[in-house]
Structure formats: structure tokens, C-alpha cells
Design a protein that fits this description.
Helix content is about 40%, strand content about 20%. It has about 325 residues and is an alpha/beta fold. A hairpin with a 7-residue loop joins strand 7 and strand 8. Helix 8 runs parallel beside helix 9.
């Protein structure tokens, strides 16, 4: 079994919890065991507990974010020791890019990071897909380490023990007392989210979507001759997006928050100053660890109904509704 150490900033604890959920199958199969500082018990020496694990575990996950890079303990203590063990071949360091940040110049900047192409987890339209990509990468490393452990144990054990090496561990550590020895790493509890948290999530998402549209419209005009994109903020909860071709309006939409239909984010074709019609909607949903959006799926290209959409995933879905008709122009 490969042991996994999480090096992370507490600002990213929710993302760490989400990743642990996705590692559940690896733990159930006995391929990995995980450890992080939240498993330190009352009365333990924190520095000593962390030092023991980071010097013993086979895989060290660096959960990279601006907060991680800003943390003196993560960067100057845990990272320094992790890279020393990696360079010595004693452990495998895997950077996990959680949030966009300037990480490529860090000491681990030359290592192959996860998810694929080092695309930050929060920038994937569906976070579950990001975590699945990460899990597959960790599985490959952990299975290789487990295979190496079996071969090493079998070759170094006395002849009478070699046949047992691949199936069992001989414990000569003596009797164990309460609080010592093996225990589950499956200690995560389900989270519940208040209505205020859901409302804040929606408000943050609306601001993100508005900026996403504004930047996309500006770039659209730069890249396509004769086209012009216009963003207009109506108020804090409504904006319009218009695309012109040679001065003629060819696409227009209104995006607004809440309204007559309750909470959520709504997309309406054309300029819509009321809250009583829409062509697509995004509602807040939650699992036991995170908030996300689901689309109502009214539009023909609304594919997000079964997905857990992040802010970027929600923005890209709505942007696709506006631009898709123009991409089919001849």
C-alpha cells in the first residue's frame, strides 16, 4: 500500500476534501492510505507529527494554489523536505494544481502536474472530471509503488518468509495501545450548506459570468474582422451581450440573477428587461462536499443537466448559447 501525504493550505481545505472523496475507491482497494494535518490528535506535537509523515510517506501531493505559494510553512518547510526526498528517489512528489497561480517557477515547476496539462481544478467546467483525471494519475503511481514494495519485500525477506511477502505483513512492533496503530483515513463527514452560502455562491457566479462575457465579447471583436461585441451592465443582477456584424445585430442575450422564478441564474435571448421569461436556467445544487450548478437543459446545446458545473462551466454553457448560431454561419 502506498501512503499519501497532503501538503496544502487550510484556505483550500474544501478542495482537499473534494479530492479525498474521489480517492475513496483507491482506499477501499487498499492501494493507498492518506494523511493530512487534520488527523493530528489533541496533545500531539504538530511539527513532529507532520515531520514523521512527510519523511515516511511514499507519495506527497502538493495542493498548489496562491494560498499554498503564500504559506511559509507549506513552501519553506513541507515543500523543501518533499523535494529533497523526491530528488533522492525516496518519494514521489505530485503537484496538484487547484487554482490558477504562478507555480511554474517554484522548485517543483519542472514536475509533471495534475490534472492533465496542469489545468487548475477550479477552471474545469465539471470538477468531477478534474478529480477523476487526478485520481487516474495517482492510481498509476501508487500501483507502481505497490509493485516495487512487493518485489523488495520478497527479495529481502528470509526464504521461509518470501512466499508470504505479497499477501501479509509481519508485525514485530509489540502490543499496541488505544490510539496507536492502524485506523481508517475515511473520517470525512458530509457538509451541509446554508441558504446564505448558496446565495453567496450564486452572487459570486453571476459576477464571474458577467466578467467572462465582457472579456469574451472584447476578444471576439479582435479575432474576427467585421464583428463587434458589446457588453452592457444593467444593474448588479442583469447584463446584456450583443454581437454585431458590419453594424447589424446578429446575436443578443440577457443574463440575470433571480427574478420571478426564484434563485438561480437565467439566460434569455434578446434584450429582456423582465424576469418572466428565459431560454435556459442554472440552479444551485450540492453534494456532501461542494456547491455547483445544474442547467435546466431547455436549450438544444444545454448539456450541463447531468454535470456539476463550476463558475467557469456555467459561464461557458451560457456563452455557447449566444455564439453557437454564429459558428454555423456560412
Amino acid at each position: 500500500m502506498a501512503s499519501v501525504f497532503f501538503s496544502y493550505s487550510h484556505a483550500d481545505e474544501q478542495l482537499r476534501n473534494e479530492l479525498e472523496v474521489h480517492l475513496a475507491m483507491l482506499k477501499r482497494e487498499g492501494i493507498i492510505d492518506t494523511w493530512h494535518d487534520r488527523r493530528i490528535e489533541a496533545g500531539e506535537n504538530i511539527d513532529r507529527a507532520i515531520d514523521e509523515r512527510i519523511n515516511e510517506d511514499n507519495i506527497i501531493l502538493l495542493l498548489v494554489s496562491p494560498s499554498f505559494l503564500d504559506s511559509a510553512y507549506c513552501f519553506d518547510v513541507e515543500l523543501k523536505r518533499a523535494m529533497a526526498r523526491h530528488d533522492a528517489g525516496e518519494a514521489v512528489v505530485i503537484p496538484i494544481i487547484l487554482r490558477p497561480c504562478d507555480w511554474t517557477h517554484a522548485p517543483f515547476g519542472k514536475l509533471l502536474a495534475l490534472p492533465t496539462d496542469a489545468r487548475p481544478v477550479t477552471r474545469w467546467p465539471d470538477r468531477d472530471e478534474a478529480y477523476l483525471d487526478i485520481v487516474r494519475g495517482i492510481r498509476r503511481v501508487a500501483e507502481r509503488i505497490a509493485g516495487d514494495q512487493v518485489q523488495t519485500t520478497a527479495s529481502s525477506a528470509p526464504p521461509v518468509m518470501r512466499d508470504l511477502a505479497s499477501s501479509q505483513t509481519i508485525d514485530r512492533a509489540g502490543p499496541m495501545h488505544a490510539g496507536e496503530g492502524p485506523r481508517s483515513s475515511n473520517l470525512r463527514l458530509a457538509r451541509t450548506f446554508t441558504q446564505r452560502e448558496k446565495d453567496q455562491f450564486t452572487e459570486e457566479a453571476f459576477r464571474y459570468i458577467a466578467l467572462y462575457f465582457e472579456n469574451s465579447l472584447a476578444e471576439l471583436g479582435k479575432r474576427n474582422f467585421g464583428f463587434e461585441g458589446i457588453f452592457r451592465s444593467i444593474d448588479n443582477g442583469r447584463f446584456t451581450a450583443s454581437i454585431y456584424h458590419n453594424g447589424d445585430a446578429v446575436a443578443r442575450c440577457t443574463v440575470y440573477e433571480g427574478g420571478d422564478f426564484g434563485s438561480g441564474i437565467y439566460y434569455a435571448q434578446g434584450e429582456n428587461r423582465g424576469n418572466n421569461s428565459y431560454n435556459e436556467s442554472l440552479s444551485v445544487d450540492a453534494d456532501d462536499q461542494m456547491l455547483f450548478f445544474r442547467s435546466f437543459g431547455m436549450s438544444s446545446i444545454g448539456q450541463g443537466q447531468a454535470q456539476k458545473l463550476s463558475h467557469e462551466g456555467a459561464a461557458e454553457l451560457l456563452w455557447g448559447l449566444l455564439i453557437a448560431p454564429l459558428q454555423g454561419r456560412r
